[in-house]
Amino acid sequence: MQYDTYLGVRVSPLTYDDILNQVNEMIATNDQATIFAVNPEKIMTARQDDELRHLLNNATFQIPDGVGVLLASKLYNGRVKERVTGVDLSERLLGLANDKGYRVFFYGAKEAVGQKMQARLQERFPNLTIAGYQNGYDDDPDALVDRINESGADMLFVALGSPKQERWINDYRERLNVSVIQGVGGTFDVLAGEVKRAPKITQKLGIEWLYRLLSDPKRWRRQIALPKFLLTLLFNRKQSK
């Protein structure tokens, strides 16, 4: 696969359908795929964190979850043509599991959030087989790995926040018998209805980040990563000319 690379971090220039098609093939052949979201905040952190950069680049799919990555692709005439958000991809993977009979396992978030999420998902996807759930406060990873394997899960969604979830997936992926492992951050809260997504119009316009900032001004420290990322790219581009 050919990748775009921004400040040392790979980004997969694939669409939702591209990823779903490859996931189907991997499940059929018992191969394994890891999926990590890439956004300006992670790229700026990875620029100073060699371990995180290695974890991201070592994944099967680094999805462009952030308008900043799309803008970077336009700036550098890259291959990334559309956003692939972690929330939307996880929902499409769950839809695929519902249609194909794949088994799913969830790990992360608070117990109450996990239970509410499962109830809502069963309403949305009546044929979805939830093989198991474990909240994010488990302190016995060996027993958890055994439980996931015994569940017969095809897909595993890990919601521990970044970079904890990337580290956990990297540490245990070789021992896990699942075909698809996605790090999903706060997605369980969204699927449970605890956190509302930005209106569709802001998502289409690429200003979901602005909606989040206005809804929760305390996020400004995180949101400042976007202008820093774009300015760093512009500076590096000028330096290379």
TrEMBL record:
GO molecular function: N-acetylglucosaminyldiphosphoundecaprenol N-acetyl-beta-D-mannosaminyltransferase activity
EC number: 2.4.1.187
Superkingdom of source: Bacteria
Catalytically driven reaction(s): UDP-N-acetyl-alpha-D-mannosamine + N-acetyl-alpha-D-glucosaminyl-di-trans,octa-cis-undecaprenyl diphosphate = N-acetyl-beta-D-mannosaminyl-(1->4)-N-acetyl-alpha-D-glucosaminyl di-trans,octa-cis-undecaprenyl diphosphate + UDP + H(+)
A Pfam family assignment: Glyco_tran_WecG
Pathway participation: Cell wall biogenesis; teichoic acid biosynthesis
InterPro entries xref list: TagA_TarA, WecG_TagA_CpsF
Keywords: Cell wall biogenesis/degradation, Glycosyltransferase, Teichoic acid biosynthesis, Transferase
Biological role: Catalyzes the conversion of GlcNAc-PP-undecaprenol into ManNAc-GlcNAc-PP-undecaprenol, the first committed lipid intermediate in the de novo synthesis of teichoic acid.
Family: Belongs to the glycosyltransferase 26 family. TagA/TarA subfamily.
Protein name: N-acetylglucosaminyldiphosphoundecaprenol N-acetyl-beta-D-mannosaminyltransferase
